[in-house]
Write a structure and sequence with these properties.
Elements lengths: L18 H53 L28
């Protein structure tokens, strides 16, 4: 059997893409760049918020220490300020240091 030769037609080599394709590609790349920029801004905001959260948590810890020293408990109702004494508390009245 004789082999058939395949003929492949090559397109003429072009130097640049069409203006329509160029605009579409530019819009896609600009969309990616804008999205990455926005992600970066959000990550920076997230970092700042996490820092603020840590600061607030430290302040709560300091407040709890103050309440523990002043009142003998830091378990307090945020609604009315009432101390939530546990059932096994030895004394429901704390001893205050007098100056």
């Amino acid at each position: 059997m004789a082999k058939k030769e395949k003929t492949i037609e090559l397109k003429q080599r072009v130097e640049k893409i069409s203006d329509e394709h160029l605009k579409e590609l530019q819009n896609l790349v600009n969309g990616i760049n804008g999205t990455q920029f926005n992600i970066g801004k959000i990550e920076a905001q997230k970092h700042e918020l996490l820092h603020n959260l840590s600061v607030l948590q430290n302040r709560v810890q300091l407040m709890q220490d103050t309440l523990q020293k002043e009142y003998g408990s830091y378990d307090v109702s945020l609604e009315d300020g009432k101390i939530n004494w546990s059932n096994n508390s030895a004394s429901k009245k704390p001893i205050k240091n007098e100056k």
